[in-house]
Amino acid sequence: MGRTEVKPEEVFLAHGEAEAQIIKAKLESYAIPAMLISTAAPSVHVFVMDGLGEYRVMVPHSLAEQARQLLEDDENV
Questions:
Q1: How far apart are CA 25 and CA 32, in angstroms?
Q2: If we measure between CA atoms, which residue out of 9, 44, 36, 8 comes closest to residue 20?
Q3: Which regions in the chain score pLDDT beneath 70?
C-alpha cells in the first residue's frame, strides 16, 4: 500500500517564535495540524531583522483555506 503524500502550505508568517507558537496552538485547537518552519536557530535570533527570526506556519494543503479563514475571522491574531 502506498502512503498518501500531504503537501504542506503556508498560512501565516510570524515574526518570532512566540507569535508562531500562538498561531500553531490556535489552529491545533480546531483540529488543524500545524508545523513551524524557520531558517534561523531559535536561540540565535530573538528579534526579526531582514526576515531573520520569521516562522512560517504550515498546514496540510487540504486544510489551508479553513486555517486562513479561522485566522482572518479572529481579530486578535
A1: 9
A2: 36
A3: 1-5, 40-52, 75-77
Contact 11, 68 (CB under 8 A): yes
Q: Is residue 5 helix, strand or coil?
A: coil
Asked if 16 contacts 47 with a C-beta cutoff of 8 angstroms, the reply is: yes
Q: How is the chain split into domains, by residue range?
A: 8-57
Q: Which residues pair with 14 in a beta bridge?
A: 55
Contacts of 39 (CB under 8 A, 6+ apart): 52, 54
37 sits in which H/E element: strand 35-37
- Look up cell 498518501; give the residue: 4
What digits encode the pLDDT tens for the residues 33-49?
Answer: 999 998 766 555 455 45
